[in-house]
Amino acid sequence: MTKADLIEAMAKDAGISKVAAGAALDSFVDGIVKTLKKKDGKITLVGFGTFSKGRRKARTDATRRPEPKSRSRRPRSSNSRPARS
Description:
Blueprint: H1 3-14, H2 18-37, E1 42-45, E2 49-55, E3 73-79, H3 81-84
Antiparallel strand pairs: 1-2, 2-3
Helix pairs in contact: 1-2
């Protein structure tokens, strides 16, 4: 499903225009991004899943020396049980 498909489905289900559905989706995504940028950012949506930050392991080059600044934070998500089926 693409973003356009999701906006169309949201507009149809909620009985609103595609412009309003697109604005709502953009606001939702922006809210998640802003929260994850915070130090202890974590979002839990009951019945849907959790968005959080996790550490990425340091990578090594051919000489097996760790690269500087290679360990970083990356966004992660996990689905709740009902959303997995």
